[in-house]
Amino acid sequence: MPAKGFRKAHCVRGHKRTVDNIRPNGNCIQCQLHPRVKKTHCIRGHEKTLDNTTKSGNCRTCSLEHSKRFYQEHLEAERERARLHQAAHPEKRKESFIKFLAEHPGYAAEHKKAWDKANPERKAEHSRRTRKKHPEARRAAHQRRKARKLGNGGSWTPKEWLELKSTYVFKCLCCGRREEALIVDGLKLVTDHIQPLAKGGRNDIANIQPLCHGLGGCNNIKGTKWIDYRPGFPLEIV
């Protein structure tokens, strides 16, 4: 039952008309607490709740629909504006992208999978360029995959490999030639497993030594033998 003297049990927005919710002039207190919501629905029939009403009193759903239509009608101009904004604020763009990935953990993997499927030729070209630009990363991935198949475990990074070469002054531990001389002779300095993966050796940086590779290279001659060329270690052959 509405309070005595009230004509209706609820206001136009459905608030119960009680003594505590009615001002002396008969207006609903809850409605007046949120003056930006003036009507129950917009002209297109969307309910005008607090969550669906902007600060200016407009319908938020209608505003979003208008923005989408405007974006579609001016697609190239909006994309160019976005590109200019991103170029002018690279740090802000990076922070926004990191936040987006944190909120959508599976987005990056799904997007990459869909892109690779839709662009097989571009994916192959990108893979070729990456392998050519980062040969050490490619070799690390190959040996990590090989060790995983054999059940040996372990992994190393290009940074660890660079530090190891620096420790031995960029020399082949078998023949003693530096990396610059090896390149002139058509050889290259590569990772060699002291205890071969085929004989149970782990794919860790502690089990790796730098040897030259190529036609007549020390790595090719060693093959799958267990030989430790590091100074201060016993030379073991198995």
What structural category arises from helix and sheet content?
mainly alpha
Give the low-confidence spans. Answer: 1-5
Round the mean pLDDT to the nearest integer and report it: 86
Major beta sheet, specifics? 2 strands, antiparallel
Strand order of the largest sheet: 1-2
Q: Using the CA coordinates, give the radius of gyration.
A: 35 Å
Distance between the termini: 97 Å
The 3D shape can be described as: elongated
Content of β-strand: 5-15%
Describe what you observe in this structure.
With 238 residues, this protein is mostly helical. The chain has a domain at 135-222. The chain is built from 10 helices and 2 strands. It has helices at residues 29-33, 60-73, 75-88, 90-103, 107-118, 120-133, 135-150, 158-167, 179-184, 218-222; strands at residues 188-193, 208-213. A two-stranded antiparallel sheet has the order 1-2. It is elongated and about 105 Å long. The termini are far apart. Mean pLDDT is 86; it is low at 1-5.
